[in-house]
Structure formats: structure tokens, C-alpha cells
Specification:
The structure is a single chain. About 40% of the residues lie in helices and about 20% in strands. The protein is an alpha/beta fold. It folds into two domains: about 190 residues, Rossmann fold (3-Layer(aba) Sandwich); about 160 residues, Rossmann fold. Strands 3-4-2-1-5-6-7-8 form an eight-stranded mixed β-sheet, sandwiched between helices. Strand 1, helix 1 and strand 2 form a beta-alpha-beta unit. Helix 2 packs parallel to helix 3, helix 6 crosses helix 11 and helix 9 crosses helix 12. The longest helix has 17 residues. It is globular, with a radius of gyration of 21 Å.
């Protein structure tokens, strides 16, 4: 099978920096038995090509990206016909996949993986912020041969738009991220918390810090590692300093998967504060490492609660603080949640994801 995979980026030739781990896992598995050609829209300004995990990456660059992507797919199809075109993310990726599918007369599949279905103008986020987006996104998704999404809340959002979609989580590569049984925490030491996300308005670290201040005022002893690229110019670090968290909060910046794993294994609890997620993958990675999640009711956190995660309303720092405190205090509860999260993660790992997509390709080609 010859597969065209359209992605926004995250496919750096290093395989370690500027990558999306779940995307690499999928590419590697699909490329074992198929000819996979990856068209990347925004992986750097310069156009280029390179091999990655058995696939060929075609980076379009920053000039006339959509037009050049369609032209690239057309040229690749003429050299050897594609059987299917698959967009990971809707938006521009989905639009290109649908156009290419129509032109090449092949099925198109779109996996909704970001904020394509939401509008949050107060933070400048979401594909539905403009009237063009509100018209384009549903039209593009309706034109696809098949639509998928990672979690039940996103399937529900698609249903509200009158769109039928299938749930396909982007699973963890258990060879790279091997399963680890949850362990009891050492109650003689401060609780080890970890937050893993880019510092940005969608991830809402302001709510996270307010919850931590409340936790501290309630007398809980804890330390927190905050991992992720800073896109806000130090604003979150300054907020943590002014809130009196400098002695308990450590900002780690971006870490590779190899650097992240031991830090996550040392944690007792992953804490998450996003306003919106389709996943996120980090909840699954934490679960694989034996670490449960307390966070806002988005993506996997919402669909896993209450048995495999603890969820609270978005933006509610008081509830987030109370939930973190409850799980810290009750280690039997923490371990029960962690074990169920581990079970679900190992059932729907990267092999499962690739098999589900491969089955969908085969069904669409009949």
C-alpha cells in the first residue's frame, strides 16, 4: 500500500528534537509494510527531503504551502500512485488531503488532533474563530472519506456538528516507553508532582499555579517539575516567583523523551490544566510509567475519569487543588487510578493505533 501522510510538522530528521512522538511511532509502524510518503507543511521555512523511520519526508517550506503541498502529492502520485491520503490534524492538513483525494480519485482520511473544532478568541486559539473557519472546517470534514479523533469528547464535538467519526487514540510506543507498575509513594518526603506541556495560554499554567498556591496554603508538602518549551517569554516563571512558589517549582524547559522518562518515573502524580486537548499523549506516557493524572476535564482525562484519572472543570483552580490534595493523601486511591490508567494505555498502544488505521485504509479502498 502506498500512503500519503499529510502532517503540520513534528518529523525532524533527528528523530528526537522538534518531533511529535506519537506521529513518529505511527510512521515507523506504517512504513514496515507500506510505502509511506510524508508531506510536512511547516517543518521549517526551507523545503527539503529526508528519510525517517522507513518513510520519506517531503517538507514543503513556507512559500505557498497549501498549493505546493497539493503539487507535491500530485507529482508523487504520478511517479507511483497512492492508495490513500491521510491527514493528521484537520485545518490546512485536512484541506490538502481532501483536495488531493478528489484530484487523485483516492480515499481521504482526516484525524482531528488539535483545536480545529473550537473557538477561544480570548487567547487566540481554535479553528472556529472566524466565519471562514466555521464554514471551512465542517465542509472539509464532511468531504473526507473517513474522520477519526483520539478521545470521546472530540467524537462528541464532531457529532454535534453532524459528523460521524471513529475513535482512534494516538498510542504510546511501549518499546520506547516500556510499561512500569505503579509504586507506593514515600510519605516521609514531599509529594513529587509533574506538569508536562508547552508554556502557553491553551495549557493554562496560570490556573495550575493558582491551584499550587492553594495546595501550599492548605499545608501540603510537595515539589513540582514543570517541563515544556516556554512560548510566553518567562511570564509563567515570573508568576510562580510572585506567588511564592520558587522554592517548590522547578522549570525544566524542553526535554527529550530520554530525558523525560526518569523525571516522570520519580513523580507521584501528573497534573494538567489545559483549556482544551484532543489527547494529550503525555497522560498516556505518564500512565505507562505508572503515574496517574489529575487534571481538567479535557480529552483522555475526561473520558478516563473517575476510574483511570481524576478530572475537574476547566479553569477551576480550587477544584484542581482539592483533587490533587485528595490523591496525594490517599495512596490507595492513587495506585488504583494508576493501575487502571496503565491497563488502558497498554491496551491502546502505538501498535493498536497503527493496526486501527491500517484497517480503516483497507476498508476505504474496497
Amino acid at each position: 500500500m502506498r500512503i500519503a501522510l499529510v502532517v503540520p510538522g513534528g518529523v525532524d530528521r533527528s528523530g528526537e528534537y522538534r518531533v511529535i512522538p506519537a506521529l513518529l511511532s505511527l510512521i515507523q509502524r506504517l512504513a514496515l509494510d507500506n510505502d509511506v510518503q510524508v508531506v510536512a507543511l511547516n517543518h521549517g521555512d526551507q523545503a527539503g527531503e529526508w528519510d525517517l523511520l522507513g518513510a520519506r519526508v517531503h517538507n514543503i517550506g513556507s512559500r505557498r504551502t497549501r498549493l505546493m503541498a497539493v503539487r507535491t502529492l500530485w507529482a508523487l502520485h504520478r511517479s507511483a500512485p497512492f492508495d490513500i491520503v491521510h491527514a493528521i490534524w484537520s485545518g490546512s492538513c485536512g484541506l490538502i488531503a481532501v483536495i488531493a483525494g478528489k484530484l487523485l480519485r483516492i480515499p481521504s482520511l482526516i484525524h482531528v488532533a488539535g483545536g480545529e473544532l473550537v473557538s477561544m478568541p480570548e487567547i487566540g486559539f481554535g479553528g472556529m474563530q472566524t466565519w471562514k473557519g466555521r464554514l471551512r472546517e465542517p465542509a472539509v470534514l464532511r468531504s473526507a472519506s473517513c474522520v477519526t479523533a483520539a478521545s470521546a469528547p472530540v467524537i462528541g464535538a464532531l457529532s454535534e456538528l453532524g459528523l460521524s467519526a471513529q475513535r482512534v487514540p494516538l498510542g504510546v510506543d511501549l518499546k520506547v516507553w516500556p510499561p512500569r507498575e505503579p509504586v507506593r509513594r514515600d510519605r516521609s518526603k514531599p509529594a513529587r508532582l509533574i506538569h508536562i506541556a508547552s508554556l502557553n495560554r491553551v495549557k493554562d499554567q496560570s490556573t495550575l499555579l493558582m491551584a499550587l498556591v492553594s495546595l501550599k496554603e492548605l499545608g501540603f508538602s510537595f515539589e513540582v517539575d514543570i517541563v515544556g518549551e516556554d512560548t510566553l517569554g518567562g511570564a509563567i516563571q515570573a508568576l510562580a516567583e510572585s506567588a511564592g512558589l520558587s522554592k517548590v517549582a522547578r522549570f525544566r524547559g524542553f526535554l527529550t523523551q530520554r530525558q523525560l522518562r526518569p523525571l516522570l518515573e520519580a513523580a507521584d502524580l501528573l497534573i494538567h490544566s489545559s483549556r482544551y486537548e484532543t489527547g494529550p499523549l503525555v497522560v498516556l506516557e505518564a500512565a505507562a510509567a505508572g503515574v496517574p493524572t489529575v487534571g481538567t476535564a479535557v480529552g483522555h482525562i475526561a473520558e478516563w475519569a473517575p476510574h483511570a484519572a481524576v478530572s475537574v472543570p476547566v479553569g477551576d483552580w480550587r477544584s484542581l487543588s482539592a483533587a490533587i490534595g485528595s490523591v496525594i493523601e490517599d495512596d490507595d486511591l492513587r495506585l488504583r487510578i494508576a493501575r487502571e490508567a496503565l491497563r488502558r494505555t497498554t491496551q491502546e498502544d502505538a501498535d493498536y493505533t497503527a493496526a486501527r488505521f491500517h484497517a480503516l485504509y483497507a476498508s476505504l479502498m474496497k
